[in-house]
């Protein structure tokens, strides 16, 4: 196989001017940077790493009260076998008070010492925070307001639907279908922190996604292989026709017929790839932590590699997107013994994967000396019904719901505690939406959650309410989990 | 209020525009053209590109402000402007929603403009006034924008309109003032039936129109042109009918009385979930591959697409698969015996009635497994609430969608301009209670050891023998077109609570069947179902952004096939393919078309380059082993990541409000992977296609492009031939010249090598281009 890019870079190493590089950048992001008042190029490095738990992770089994309320939990979830036994839960003592336990597979090494470690370590170091019962909200909303929905002011668009709630988690636009993500809009408005770079600010290791789609900025998506191979245009034909060569026929065609919308869209994607290809062709840096060879492990390892060579890439600010699917556990959510790292039912197995990958990433950031610069956080479609769904006693699961819990981890996180308000675990409790299945009305909005992350990242305070359209309706605009 | 305002606008404009129209018409010299008629916007003179445009109420000329007082719509003061045009080739009675409009500013941003009214100018037959609403995202001093109208996929010339101030704006197009193709005058507008009937004469369709038809209705035109020549001989309507009557490969009703096989997927042996250990012979590598992975079905999919004649059934069936989804991974980790009956169910019903499709899919055990209707129960005390999964997704994805739709597929809006949900959580809870009590039929005999150990994923699910699974209380469903009141399924009552337990069980089972039929009817007769199904079909077969008028024509065919039958898929498919928005030799509307999804991209090229009989290919291009080409491109056939399919049906092209579902899996990685596939197929293996690789790719896939090589001494001929073969003649002159130059630059002392390299490079450049990959 011809080594297209190396040849190209060698042949043109000095000939490629900065102007040529800028020309191949996403034109819109440059325009955007010029027309808006933005901060100066940053002197420090910061990255947000979004881990999307796709399908709607059952928050009610991720963080469980182990005080008197465990009995209430067990009353509803115990008979069908959906409850995690109290003895299996990993006790945590949040600084916020009340006693909780984590799902055993959020730190599988406790029950199974041979297993790679999960999240208890970072929690105990005060670097992991839990945000309880956040979700899509138009404004602060009580159960009664949700039910009466006066003036249509309290019900986000299409609650409980996967596609719409994923859209809202990623866009923080909750009254309709968002067409840009909040990560993308943060990038739209903080591009100047990076100065002029070849890579876009937003990078996905899990395919194209709405979260990183801005009004003017675009993401690049790469796989999890070696950096030298993730974007590699193969060519086995005559060298003179190499598509990667500057001015090649392949490149020329990308500039034609741009009045046709879909053609322009496809060409823009290829152009973004060609630009990123210029700089991503790097030797893989040495990674100290042992990442699990799982889907999410490989994704987070790729992110860790990119962070390690951030100076080579010339990046000061980056937004990464990872994804772990399979959380839509209508059935087979758990198993008789939920401590088994890979035989604990669908959710338990996924939490093993999540916790071990996230922990390796946490350790690697520490080894790189980047802990304080990198914050990993989770989002998910929605929480799931507290009341189980009725499919056979051994195959029990839960249905789509609303409020959910999130994890935020990193050196800058003020962790070891719960933020937000944990819901009262009882059917028809004050947190129940009134359907009596335990769909929690969120007490914190995705806008507040995102804005707290964005403010830390460097989004100027005066742009927070632009990026997060409903933020101004909430009394607290910064949840305080980042120092 | 709004209706009145529009009526007033129309009247005022009618009164005032006559003099403009006279001026403009005098400046144009009419001429006749034979090909598709493009709408023609009037400009103020033959030497100007400024549109004849008026603020629609005040009749003031440009520049236009963004809002206008007294436009009779206090709630929506956005300015409406009236432009004038001719050559609108409407069908008889076609609504304004057939027209779309857009405006481009100096920065290149394109703003869709909502067309609110179209009418003829009184006393000037054939001259139309079109009222458009200025886009909300336009800024006050935008300067000149270029405005364009599109009808049936054909764009008008673009004329300048000033927003805020006159001047600036994009450069004029190269031919901004085309002469009208028809003289102003009373045009004969065809009814849809008359339009379709024109195609009964095979000679009516141009060759490029026929090629476009094959792109929409098959996996690609064959390189030997046998399909094309036949189509040209008999015409599109006869060809469609012939396709409807082309039997799939595997037709056999004798194997199993409950399961009539009529499919392109063969009967799949009933292997058990877990292959037994000793003393049975071990399941070796081939056994595992053939009975515990999707390899045989994925391979069959590609073989069918490349080699089988029932192309239309396959395209329609794959479309159904993309919105009525079962993913193989969840079926015992891709076991074919669990998955094949789902594909067979789709094949059996693709040309049938949508009601039957919905019913049979609901009882398909693979679907039951995938979305948890199998085993769904109200086992009292333990799990009082049925699983909502199937109830939610059959509504959201398989039949009616989340928003209440008008019959033209546009969302119904409430007084505040918000969309109106089709159903709420209560509807889901009620419907979930209908879907209780069903489970697998009796086990099948395992071919491994002859015992009854294979869970029955073949026959339709049946009402289970456990009485405590059924919810026999009353359920309230949705309102459908048959009544102004919601459908109510009454409680079973005494039959389910009296008599012997055998009698009560029989009553439960009968109740479950009746209830299921009521629920399926409720969804089938829901007003959304026609437009919803039509949108899915049109997106996948023709274009991502059909006009509402097009969707409306399709929905009308869904509602009534002409013989009073609702849900006849033959009528729906015929209407989609014989619509003026689908037909024609070239489409110039900038938003027209759709990105070829990975499998369509692959099959179109493979068929074009003669991998079209079973001696040329083993079909191993989308299977898991040894190398899944389509997976690299982002589409793992029969394993979409979720019930939301391979890509979201409502995905927007980033930065626009246009639908572009296939862009959901086009990213930087997969755009390179697409180009790399072209290299693999056409260049890497000396142009011989995909090589043999072990037992899992026993034959490889050969292609041939010898006829193109013969043209390579004259690169222009080579590129023109590829343009005709792959792009039905739509390649732009810029693109054509660029490829000719690139090909001409390839020289080699060895003439054979030069011919090969030139041809490979030319094919690579066309096939990897966005211009080709967006089917238009």
Low-confidence stretches of chain B: 1-34
Number of helices of chain A: 16
Annotated CATH architecture of chain A: 3-Layer(aba) Sandwich
Question: For the report, how would you describe the main beta sheet of chain A?
Answer: 9 strands, mixed
Number of separate domains of chain A: 1
Portion of residues within helices of chain A: 25-40%
State the order of secondary-structure elements of chain A, H for helix, E for strand.
Answer: HHHEEHEEHEHHHEEHHHHHEHEEEEEEHH
Our count of domains of chain B comes out at 3
Task: Name the pair of protein chains with the most residues at their interface, and give those residue counts.
Answer: A-B, 85 and 88 residues
Strand residues, percent of chain A:
5-15%
Q: Please identify the oligomeric state.
A: heterodimer
Structural class of chain B: alpha+beta
Mean pLDDT of chain B: 91
Distance between the termini of chain B: 40 Å
Report the helical percentage of chain B: 25-40%
| Averaged pLDDT of chain A | 91
Q: What sort of overall outline of chain B do the alpha carbons produce when their principal axes are compared?
A: globular
Q: Please, how many helices of chain B?
A: 26
Structure summary, number of beta strands of chain B:
17
Task: Identify the CATH class of chain A.
Answer: Alpha Beta
Q: The CATH topology of chain A, please?
A: Alkaline Phosphatase, subunit A
């Amino acid at each position: 196989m011809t080594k297209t890019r190396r040849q190209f870079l060698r042949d043109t190493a000095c000939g490629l001017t900065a102007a040529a590089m800028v020309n191949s950048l996403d034109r819109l992001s440059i325009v955007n940077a010029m027309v808006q008042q933005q901060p100066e190029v940053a002197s420090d490095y910061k990255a947000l790493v979004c881990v999307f738990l796709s399908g709607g992770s059952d928050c009610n089994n991720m963080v469980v009260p182990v005080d008197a309320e465990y009995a209430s939990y067990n009353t509803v979830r115990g008979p069908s076998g959906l409850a995690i036994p109290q003895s299996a839960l990993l006790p945590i003592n949040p600084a916020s008070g009340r006693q909780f336990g984590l799902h055993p597979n959020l730190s599988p090494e406790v029950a199974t010492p041979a297993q790679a470690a999960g999240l208890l370590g970072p929690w105990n170091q005060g670097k992991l925070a839990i945000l309880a019962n956040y979700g899509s909200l138009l404004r602060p909303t009580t159960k009664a307001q949700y039910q009466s929905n006066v003036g249509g002011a309290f019900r986000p668009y299409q609650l409980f639907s996967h596609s719409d709630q994923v859209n809202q988690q990623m866009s923080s636009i909750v009254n309709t279908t968002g067409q840009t993500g909040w990560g993308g809009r943060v990038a739209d408005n903080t591009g100047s922190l990076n100065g002029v770079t070849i890579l876009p600010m937003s990078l996905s290791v899990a395919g194209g996604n709405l979260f990183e789609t801005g009004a003017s900025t675009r993401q690049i998506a790469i796989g999890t292989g070696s950096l030298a191979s993730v974007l590699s245009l193969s060519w086995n034909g005559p060298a003179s026709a190499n598509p990667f060569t500057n001015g090649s026929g392949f490149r020329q065609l990308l500039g034609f017929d741009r009045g046709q919308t879909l053609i322009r869209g496809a060409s823009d994607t290829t152009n973004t790839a060609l630009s990123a290809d210029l700089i991503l062709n790097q030797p893989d840096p040495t990674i100290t932590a042992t990442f699990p060879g799982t889907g999410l492990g490989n994704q987070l390892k790729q992110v860790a590699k990119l962070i390690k060579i951030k100076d080579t890439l010339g990046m000061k600010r980056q937004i990464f997107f990872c994804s772990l699917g399979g959380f839509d556990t209508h059935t087979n959510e758990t198993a008789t013994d939920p401590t088994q790292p890979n035989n604990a039912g669908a959710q338990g197995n996924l939490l093993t994967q999540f916790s071990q990958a996230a922990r390796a990433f946490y350790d690697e950031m520490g080894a790189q000396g980047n802990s304080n610069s990198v914050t990993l956080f989770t989002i998910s479609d929605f929480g799931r019904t507290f009341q189980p769904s009725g499919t056979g006693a051994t195959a029990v699961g839960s249905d789509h719901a609303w409020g959910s819990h999130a994890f935020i981890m990193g050196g800058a996180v003020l962790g070891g505690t719960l933020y937000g308000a944990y819901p009262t675990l009882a059917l028809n409790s004050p947190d129940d939406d009134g359907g009596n299945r335990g769909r929690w009305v969120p007490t914190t909005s995705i806008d507040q959650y995102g804005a707290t992350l964005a403010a830390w990242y460097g989004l100027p305070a005066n742009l927070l309410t632009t990026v997060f359209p409903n933020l101004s309706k909430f009394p607290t605009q910064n949840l305080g989990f980042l120092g | 209020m709004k209706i009145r305002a529009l009526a007033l606008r129309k009247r005022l404009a009618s009164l005032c525009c006559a003099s403009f129209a006279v001026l403009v018409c005098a400046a144009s010299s009419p001429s006749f053209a034979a090909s598709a008629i493009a709408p023609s916007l009037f400009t103020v003179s033959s030497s100007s590109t400024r549109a004849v445009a008026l603020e629609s109420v005040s009749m003031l000329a440009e520049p236009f402000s963004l809002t206008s007082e007294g436009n009779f719509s206090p709630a929506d003061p956005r300015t409406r402007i009236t432009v004038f045009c001719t050559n609108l080739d409407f069908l008889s009675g076609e609504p304004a929603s057939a027209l779309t409009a857009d405006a481009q500013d100096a920065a290149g941003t394109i703003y869709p403009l909502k067309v609110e009214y179209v009418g003829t100018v009184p006393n000037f037959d054939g001259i139309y006034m079109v009222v458009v609403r200025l886009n909300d995202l336009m800024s006050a001093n935008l300067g000149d924008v270029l405005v364009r109208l599109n009808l049936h996929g054909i764009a008008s010339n673009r004329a300048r309109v000033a927003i805020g101030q006159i001047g600036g704006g994009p450069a004029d197009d190269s031919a901004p003032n085309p002469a009208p193709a028809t003289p102003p005058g009373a045009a004969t507008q065809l009814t849809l039936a008359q339009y379709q009937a024109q195609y009964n004469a095979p000679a009516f369709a141009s060759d490029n129109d026929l090629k476009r038809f094959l792109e929409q209705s098959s996996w690609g035109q064959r390189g030997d042109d046998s399909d094309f020549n036949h189509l040209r001989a008999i015409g599109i309507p006869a060809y469609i009918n012939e396709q409807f009557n082309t039997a799939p490969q595997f037709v056999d009703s004798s194997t199993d009385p409950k399961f009539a096989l009529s499919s392109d997927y063969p009967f799949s042996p009933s292997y058990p979930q877990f292959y037994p250990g000793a003393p049975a012979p071990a399941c070796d590598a081939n056994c595992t591959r053939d009975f515990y992975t999707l390899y045989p079905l994925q391979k069959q999919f590609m073989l069918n697409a490349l080699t089988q004649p029932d192309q239309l059934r396959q395209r329609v069936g794959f479309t159904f698969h993309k919105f009525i989804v079962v993913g193989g991974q969840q079926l015992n980790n891709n076991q074919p015996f669990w998955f094949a009956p789902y594909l067979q169910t789709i094949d059996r019903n693709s040309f049938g009635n949508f009601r039957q499709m919905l019913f049979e899919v609901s009882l398909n055990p693979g679907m039951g497994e995938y979305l948890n209707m199998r085993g769904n129960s109200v086992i009292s005390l333990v799990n009082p609430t049925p699983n909502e999964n199937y109830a939610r997704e059959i509504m959201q994805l398989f039949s009616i969608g989340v928003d209440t739709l008008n019959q033209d597929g546009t969302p119904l809006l409430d007084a505040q301009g918000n969309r109106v949900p089709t159903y709420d959580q209560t509807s889901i809870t009620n419907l979930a209670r209908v879907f209780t009590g069903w489970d697998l039929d009796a086990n099948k005999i395992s071919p491994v050891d002859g015992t009854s150990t294979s869970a029955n994923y073949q026959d339709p699910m049946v009402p289970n023998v456990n009485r405590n699974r059924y919810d026999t209380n009353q359920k309230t469903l949705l309102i459908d077109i048959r009544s102004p009141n919601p459908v109510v399924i009454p409680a079973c009552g005494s039959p389910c609570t009296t008599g012997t337990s055998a009698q009560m069980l029989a009553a439960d089972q009968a109740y479950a069947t009746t209830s299921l039929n009521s629920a399926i009817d409720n969804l089938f007769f829901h007003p959304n179902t026609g437009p919803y199904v039509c949108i899915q079909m049109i997106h996948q077969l023709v274009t991502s952004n059909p006009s509402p008028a097009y969707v409306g024509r399709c929905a009308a065919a869904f509602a009534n096939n002409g013989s009073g039958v609702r849900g006849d898929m033959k009528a729906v498919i015929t209407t989609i393919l014989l619509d003026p928005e689908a037909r024609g030799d070239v489409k110039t509307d900038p938003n027209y078309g759709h990105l070829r999804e990975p499998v369509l991209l692959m099959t179109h090229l493979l068929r074009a380059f003669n991998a079209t009989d079973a001696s040329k290919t083993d079909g191993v291009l989308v299977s898991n082993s040894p190398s899944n080409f389509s997976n690299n491109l982002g589409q793992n056939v029969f394993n979409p990541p979720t019930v939301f399919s391979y890509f979201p049906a409502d995905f927007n092209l980033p930065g626009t409000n246009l639908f572009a579902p296939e862009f959901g899996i086009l990213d930087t990685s997969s755009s390179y992977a697409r180009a790399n596939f072209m290299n693999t197929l056409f260049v890497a293996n000396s142009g011989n296609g995909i090589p043999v690789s072990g037992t899992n790719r026993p034959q490889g896939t050969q292609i041939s492009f010898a006829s193109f090589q013969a043209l390579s001494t004259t690169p222009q001929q080579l590129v023109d031939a590829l343009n005709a073969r792959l792009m039905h003649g739509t390649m732009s002159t810029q693109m054509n010249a660029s490829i000719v130059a690139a090909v001409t630059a390839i020289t080699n002392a060895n003439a054979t090598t030069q011919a090969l390299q030139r041809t490979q490079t030319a094919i690579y450049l066309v096939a990897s281009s966005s211009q080709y990959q967006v089917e238009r």
